[in-house]
Amino acid sequence: MAFVNDKLAESEIREYVVSPYQIVKDGACTIDREKNLRLYYTGHPHEDNDRHYFLFVWNETMINVSLRRNIIGNTIYWKLTGIDIPSSLDKYMVLEELENALKEYRYVGASAIKIMNNGVDVEVDFSTYLH
Fold first, then answer.
1. What is the spatial distance between Cα 48 and Cα 7, in angstroms, rounded to a whole number?
2. 0.85 exceeded by the pTM?
3. Dihedral of CA 86/92/63/61: which sign?
4. Given this model, what pLDDT does residue 14 score?
5. Among 11-20, 62-71, 93-102, the range of highest mean pLDDT
6. Which of 8, 59, 87, 115 is deepest in the core (most CB within 10 A)?
7. Structural contact between residues 75 and 107, judged by C-beta atoms closer than 8 angstroms
8. In the chain, how many domains are there?
9. In this predicted model, what pLDDT tens digit does every residue of 25-37 receive, in sequence order?
10. Which of 50, 47, 48 has the alpha carbon at shortest distance from 69?
């Protein structure tokens, strides 16, 4: 199974959201249920609308992610600017799955305006974290 943008069932929200991360709004996330991987959008600073924060949940391990978004034409470019991958996880596997999740998330994930995801391409740049 691959990542999909979805609204979680009430039972999934209780299972996936761990306090104090009150981040799931309407149960929206990008999820691979088979691999137990979830990407939650957690917001952006008002002074910098191009910087976006996510929580990438790898099984039960929470990984904070910050990215910069740039949109040119129909292409969304996500550049990784920060990530806290625990040493117990394989960095390359985490980045590969994060890339897969972002390519499905596209512009707005499973939000109510997900029509904005139609017809867009996604490019991901993790180059500063691959060394």
1. 27
2. no
3. negative
4. 54
5. 93-102
6. 8
7. no
8. 1
9. 567 889 999 999 9
10. 50
Spatial CB neighbours of 72, under 8 Å, sequence gap ≥ 6:
none
DSSP state of 84: -
Dist. CA 118–CA 128, nearest whole Å: 29
Query: Cα–Cα distance between 34 and 36 in angstroms, integer?
Result: 6
Give the CATH number, domain containing residue 19: 3.40.630
In total, the chain counts a number of residues equal to: 131
CA distance 46 to 14: 29
Domain residue limits at 27: 4-129
State phi, psi for 50 to the nearest 5 degrees: -90, -10
Pull the structure tokens for residue 13.
Answer: 């929200």
